[in-house]
Q: What sequence folds into this?
């Protein structure tokens, strides 16, 4: 574990070393820095990024040397950490949280020889690209499972903030559920925090006592899965496989896999073929997967999900295929059309079937 | 609203309010002795991680509660040493201890982040738990919920009726006078701070072992600060602390139920999330609005270091 202060110290020492002419290290490994927004922990957003960092190390061996700083708040601290990485001889910096975007942009301009990759943002530059994953594909599949397995026809969703990425997830989940069970409704509780286990748990308990027999979450802790286990209902994990927190409750999870992308990007930078671009990968690129399915899921449903997953892999299916109608009954996408990435990135509505109201919808 | 829904809301309200009741009553006692303990958040965090570790190692949630209490005591001892023996500024020392406790809990808690504990079954009190509507909600609860009620009566009686409570309040009002008639001011303040720390530790234990049986950095999520604010807004009166804590829990649960009910309301969710905070403040300010009683109740020497002469 590197804490921020230790890191800054060692980074400045490294900067000194780098400044010395004729470094003693002949075959120097390429140094790569990772900036994490939360502690690594044992499950969740940052945990998956760190897993990928380890996969990158395993794949490229002594060619690379990685370093990470965890728990870097999205603020002035982030810029300092990113700049230290750049200044201390790191050739590639992965900044893995949305709020780092403007800091990465600023530092990238000052260090043209360093390559910066920023997760979940939308800006790019000459030496600055962004990447994200189509989590909504996994959400759609979990929606199908939920639609098939719910008896009460009420599904619960604990969500953090009404931003496009979260809305894509809720809508895809709802569309998936309604595709197999038109009567289901999805109820959403906003906890207005990415991480507050107590609140997440209360929200899940509330949904369960209001009749939801399957719950899921777009927040960072495992509290919702644990609450479901306690109350004897089902749940879907998110980010990581959370089955050990609720062996009976956990049906599956939409999991994130950045390892191949990191390895590929680093190889491209080393070979000089990397081009700044926005990468948005899904099942096809193996950036999104489903965790192993719970044996409680009936065989026909497994087959159905496997078939859909194949279609997602081959590009034969898009969860946001029209007709898509929002809560107010307005058609947002005409029949047969596929929502483009720009529209997905700006999503600001709930589809029909979500019973709750969008906080800032007019 | 149907009965089952009411019962489950009441149940959740009591659970959400309990850590605040325990911690705020502990803080109330130390503030009544004149010591402002801003370190509650850190004491709760240490209590939570120690309780989790002990429960995980021993399998007994009760040993966990003891360990949580011990950890809260230990952090409170550090604070008391800084603020009472070394006479450091109480605000600065308290803030330092809060940051220290939160940071240290994250550090020592690393190995426990992957671990889940089994849920502790509630204790059902025979007969009265069968009362319709409220029985299941109030009398089929975790042991620490009953503990928080006992604590409330004990603190109420101690402060209002016991001689020791009178001495403690004297120390908080006029330490010099209390010292002059022979009361050991510093020792009494030590005990009050340690009591507050122990309660904060138990509050933390409630979070990590009973409420959300897990440990993760940031689990306390600001509840220590809420408890501190509750004591002030309740003008240092135990009953108002109790009301405020349940009000806070109740409004939080109610807004979750409103969101989850699928009602098409035009309130933004952000507004609903902020509701528990300002509803509690507004109500407590209204019930404690009399400036005379505020002056009467607020311990006169709160936050001021006292140095006994020679």
A:
């Amino acid at each position: 574990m590197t804490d921020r202060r230790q890191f800054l110290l060692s980074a400045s020492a490294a900067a000194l070393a780098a400044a010395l002419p004729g470094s003693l290290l002949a075959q120097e490994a390429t140094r790569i820095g990772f900036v994490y927004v939360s502690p690594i922990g044992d499950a969740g957003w940052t945990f998956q990024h760190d897993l990928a960092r380890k996969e990158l190390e395993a794949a490229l061996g002594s060619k690379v040397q990685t370093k990470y700083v965890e728990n870097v708040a999205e603020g002035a601290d982030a810029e300092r950490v990113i700049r230290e990485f750049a200044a201390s001889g790191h050739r590639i910096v992965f900044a893995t949280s949305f709020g780092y975007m403007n800091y990465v942009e600023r530092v990238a301009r000052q260090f043209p020889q360093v390559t910066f990759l920023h997760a979940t943002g939308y800006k790019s530059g000459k030496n600055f690209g962004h990447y994200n994953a189509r989590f909504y594909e996994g959400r759609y599949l979990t929606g199908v499972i939920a639609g098939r397995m719910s008896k009460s026809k009420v599904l619960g969703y604990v969500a953090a903030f009404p931003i496009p990425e979260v809305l894509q997830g809720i809508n895809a989940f709802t569309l998936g559920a309604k595709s197999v069970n038109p009567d289901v409704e999805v109820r959403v509780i906003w906890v207005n925090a990415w991480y507050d286990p107590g609140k997440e748990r209360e929200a899940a308990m509330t949904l369960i006592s209001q009749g939801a027999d399957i719950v899921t979450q777009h927040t960072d802790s495992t509290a919702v899965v644990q609450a479901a286990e306690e109350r004897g209902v089902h749940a879907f994990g998110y980010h990581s496989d959370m089955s050990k927190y609720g062996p009976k409750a956990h049906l599956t999870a939409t999991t994130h896999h950045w390892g191949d992308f990191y390895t590929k990007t680093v190889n491209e930078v080393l070979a000089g073929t990397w081009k700044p671009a926005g990468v948005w990968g899904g099942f096809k690129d193996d950036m999104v997967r489903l965790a192993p399915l719970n044996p409680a899921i009936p065989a026909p449903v497994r087959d159905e999900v496997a078939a859909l997953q194949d279609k997602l892999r081959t590009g034969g299916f898009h969860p946001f295929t029209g007709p898509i109608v929002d809560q107010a009954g307005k058609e947002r996408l005409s029949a047969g059309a596929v929502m483009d990435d720009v529209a997905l990135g700006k999503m600001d509505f709930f589809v029909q079937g979500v019973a709750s109201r969008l906080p800032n919808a007019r | 609203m149907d009965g089952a829904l009411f019962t489950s809301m009441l149940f959740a309200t009591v659970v959400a309010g309990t850590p605040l009741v325990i911690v705020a009553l502990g803080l109330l006692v130390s503030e009544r002795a004149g010591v402002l303990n801003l370190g509650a958040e850190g004491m709760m965090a240490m209590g939570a991680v120690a309780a989790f570790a002990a429960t995980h190692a021993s399998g007994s949630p009760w040993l966990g509660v003891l360990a949580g209490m011990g950890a809260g005591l230990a952090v409170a001892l550090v604070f008391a040493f800084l603020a009472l023996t070394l006479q450091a500024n109480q605000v600065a020392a308290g803030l330092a201890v809060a940051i220290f406790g939160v940071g240290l809990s994250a550090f020592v808690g690393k190995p426990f982040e992957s671990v889940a504990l089994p849920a502790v079954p509630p204790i059902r009190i025979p007969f009265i738990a069968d009362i319709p509507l409220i029985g299941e909600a109030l009398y089929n609860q975790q042991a620490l919920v009953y503990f928080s009620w006992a604590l409330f009566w004990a603190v109420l009686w101690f402060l209002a009726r016991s001689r020791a409570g009178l001495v403690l309040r004297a120390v908080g009002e006029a330490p010099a006078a209390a010292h002059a008639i022979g009361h050991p001011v510093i020792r009494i303040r030590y005990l009050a701070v340690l009591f507050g720390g122990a309660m904060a530790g138990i509050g933390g234990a409630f979070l990590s072992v009973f409420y959300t049986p897990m440990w993760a950095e940031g689990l306390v999520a600001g509840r220590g600060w809420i408890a501190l604010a509750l004591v002030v807004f309740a003008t240092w009166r135990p009953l108002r602390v109790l009301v405020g804590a349940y009000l806070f829990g109740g409004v939080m649960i109610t807004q979750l139920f409103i969101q989850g009910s699928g009602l098409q309301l035009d309130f933004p969710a952000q507004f609903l999330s902020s509701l528990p905070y300002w509803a509690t403040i507004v109500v407590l300010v209204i019930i404690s609005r009399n400036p005379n009683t505020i002056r009467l109740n607020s311990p006169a020497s709160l936050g001021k270091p006292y140095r006994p002469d020679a």
User: Anything to note?
Assistant: The CA atoms of residues 120 and 132 of chain A lie 5 Å apart. Confidence is low (pLDDT under 50) at residues 15-26 of chain A. Chain A has two domains: 4-133, 135-255+289-345. The two ends of chain A are 46 Å apart (CA to CA).
